[in-house]
Amino acid sequence: MTTYYDDRSVQVTSTTVRVDGRTYALSDISMIWHRRGTRSWRVLAGRGAIGAALAGPLVAAVLGIGVAVWLHRSPTVTIAIVGASVLVGLAVGPVADFLFEHLDRSYARGSRQLEIWARWRGQPVRLLRTGDALRFGQIYRAVQRAVEHSQPARPVTRR
């Protein structure tokens, strides 16, 4: 028996697909397809918030420099305001790696609910629903490979 995918809730082998305790024999599956749900505005808003968090200190630094020049104060005050603005802008550095990591994870998870469906014993059955795009892709490819390898080879007919 070959295992194509295995985690806590999904196992795909050369004979069965097990999802959340339900087992489907590959010999009973005749077709596999997937569906994508609508976009999650919550996920998109989260990505926007991360972008704003990345841009915020830089905008504050530029505004601070603009204010320092606009005020026409003494050189000491102007240098202090510009220096503080630059320090605020530099604050992006250590935080940027953390924020970019969260942004990358957001894209890996995706912004839609994804479903895997199968025709099992002649009836459509939803095997899996997840918002994690990376996991969905791994499971979907594993099910496809398992179904392809479980079907007997058909003889090639030439005309």
TrEMBL record:
InterPro entries according to UniProt: DUF6232
Keywords attached to this entry: Membrane, Transmembrane, Transmembrane helix
Domain of life of the organism encoding this protein: Bacteria
Parts of the chain that traverse the membrane: 44-71, 77-100
Keyword Membrane: yes
Protein name: Uncharacterized protein
Upper classification of the organism: Bacteria, Bacillati, Actinomycetota, Actinomycetes, Micromonosporales
